[in-house]
Amino acid sequence: MRGDGSGGGTGNYKLVGQGTSNGDEIREAGAIPQLVAMVSDAITQGPMTAGAAVDDLMVAEYALGTLAHLGMQRTANQEALCEAGGLSMLVDILSSVPPEDQCARYADSILTVMAMSSQSAQIKQNVVDATAELPDDIFEHYRELALFLGRGACDSYSTAVNNAGAGMLACVICTDEIVCDQPSRTLPCGHSFHYCCITDWLRYGSTCPTCRFSVRSPLRRRQPWHT
């Protein structure tokens, strides 16, 4: 697995954001099960819920961030995630980690992408099955996911705003802040996203991930990830 000394976290995260071919390299190297195991170990040890060491939290976050990018790139990456037990891991995060935690945001993003835009009907069904036991009150915090699972209403959508900074928008696809020096795109409905994130998103559909506004001219040309 590609890495930089932090459990393969930041190295893979940066690599996968630079293009689909790099995501293929990560999958073919067998890194997806390792990333899932990395996060699963963190859940088992409870570091995300009670006084976690900063390094442990960062490893889990980078691993989930990498999986989020991989899930947007290819159905094969989603299949590898399912085969590695990733769905149960993501559901465990939603049920045990505070919704404002970055790990929970990534878990929500991954499941939402798979439920909404996977090219595999089986993967979509796998997500429905994996989340079936989650209580309805959990979905009050994950309304976009609830909608695509048939457990929410269209009027439950809202623009994602980072509460840590007044007026700072967050890209609902990757859940990171949209800062001034990053390429971004605002759709006709008014919602903004990282350019790379919305480019990948619109390869699989033609609706805004926040409000489902129809985008009649989906982006087709990929752009490199800017760091």
What is this entry, summarized?
With 227 residues, the protein is mostly helical. Helices cover 49% and strands 3% of the residues. The chain has helices at 9-16, 20-28, 31-45, 54-73, 75-83, 86-96, 102-117, 121-130, 143-148, 195-202, and strands spanning 184-186, 192-194.
Helix and strand topology:
Layout: H1 9-16, H2 20-28, H3 31-45, H4 54-73, H5 75-83, H6 86-96, H7 102-117, H8 121-130, H9 143-148, E1 184-186, E2 192-194, H10 195-202
Helix pairs in contact: 1-4, 3-4, 3-6, 4-5, 4-7, 6-7, 7-8
Walkthrough of the structure:
This protein has 227 residues and is mostly helical. The protein folds into two domains: 9-156, Leucine-rich Repeat Variant (Alpha Horseshoe); 157-227, Herpes Virus-1 (2-Layer Sandwich), CATH 3.30.40. Helices cover 49% and strands 3% of the residues. It has ten helices and two strands; from the N terminus they run H-H-H-H-H-H-H-H-H-E-E-H. The protein has helices at residues 9-16, 20-28, 31-45, 54-73, 75-83, 86-96, 102-117, 121-130, 143-148, 195-202, and strands at 184-186, 192-194. The chain has a two-stranded antiparallel ribbon with strand order 1-2. Strand 1 (184-186) and strand 2 (192-194) form a beta hairpin. Helix 3 (31-45) runs antiparallel to helix 4 (54-73) and helix 3 (31-45) runs parallel beside helix 6 (86-96). The longest helix is centred in the first third of the chain and has 20 residues, at 54-73. The protein is globular, with a radius of gyration of 16 Å. It starts with 8 loop residues before the first helix and ends in a 25-residue tail after the last helix.
